Amino acid sequence: MKKKPVTGMRDILPGEMEIRNYAMNLIRETYGSFGFLPLETPCVEHIENLSSKQGGENEKLIFKILKRGEKLKLQEAKEEMDLVDGGLRYDLTVPLSRYYANNASKLPVPFKALQMGSVWRADRPQRGRFRQFMQCDIDTLGDASCLAEIELIQATTTLLGKLDFKDFTIRINDRKILKAMAKYSGFPEENFDTVFIILDKMDKLGVEGVAEELRKEGFDSEAVDKYMDLFGQLTSDVEGVKRCGQILEGIVEESSIQDMAYIMESVEAVKTADFAIRFDPTLVRGMSYYTGPIFEISMDEYGGSVGGGGRYDEMIGKFTGQETCACGFSIGFERIVMLLLERGFQVPTAGQKTAYLIEKGMTAGQLRQVLEQATKLRGQGVQVNIALMKKNKKFQKDQLRQEGYEDIQEFYRDKM
């Protein structure tokens, strides 16, 4: 029998679990205050849904589930898909879309959804990345206006502020602007995805590195130079967005520029946390289902993204045949918890924590007295931990204090 978890999975100890529970409760409370309603979907999805070319690179990382019983026909199988009928969900957006398509008649319009749950990806484990991890999503379905983006960003940043995160950045772009910039520069439309994959490396390679990669891919040097020059003309504020609209006039929809400026100005006006919102024309977001504004949370403390999302107006229609506007934002829950642990974060305790150490050999009547006293305190909101007294009492008390038990009481047989 193997005692270590499967590669990419992990055991969670009580200290971390306390922080996770605190964060999850705060998420429910904060997002609930914005009107987001909780829901739950199964961890197993139809393989057809997971493989619908909506999840980008994540579709290569699906944990697939074999058919069972008579449906599993090994001898007749010609390819892998003949053997599987389900898979573990790799995100919460595809399941939400199926959920909404199946239950729309029972849900309010717009529907503001809050979903938390584990997802699975057969990825290479590294710092802050596991093969099983918790995702926390909020989505607004059925609202085509900018209010959806504004509230998603406001709710997420409010939550991060409550967790004492500061100086982070919300990077924002629009897939329509992204495509218009590529078209303006002269790249063939059928090659946009290749261009964007390389552009997504801007943080690592820089402007010259991206330009070199594009040339290596065989793109025209004039188009590459025009593309790189365009990025150099745009600032990260609202003026940069407006300048982008002027340059791309006739190529990009004017409403996309107006909406981007409106979102940025509105978020800045109502923010309650310490963060900056920045227009980033190099932001790509890997998921192919995004159709409009996209955004990410960048933290220097982590050295990368700790959340992201955007508008995906076409996904639900693939289930229903009827287009439904949708927009969502997901925080990197595991990375947020990891940063809290590295900070030595202590969960604020609402009530007192008391420990009772009792000597072995107490009579039933003596033990009952201790239990009655503990029951009374618990009724008053005090957390009471009862344990048998160990030989090394000092070590036992030190452990209890590390767990937050400042009030430690001892009970002996001959003193009751």
Annotation keywords:
416 residues, alpha/beta, eight-stranded mixed β-sheet, three-stranded antiparallel β-sheet, 14 helices, 14 strands, 20% strand
Radius of gyration: 26 Å
Percent helix range: 25-40%
Strand content: 15-25%
The neighbouring-strand order within the major sheet is: 1-5-6-11-10-9-7-8
Structural class: alpha/beta
Q: How does the overall form come out from the CA principal axes?
A: globular
Mean pLDDT level: 91
> N-to-C terminal Cα separation, in Å?
47 Å
Instruction: State the total count of DSSP E strands.
Output: 14
pLDDT < 50 stretches:
none
Order of helices and strands: HEEHEEHEEHEHHHHHHEEEHEHEHEHE
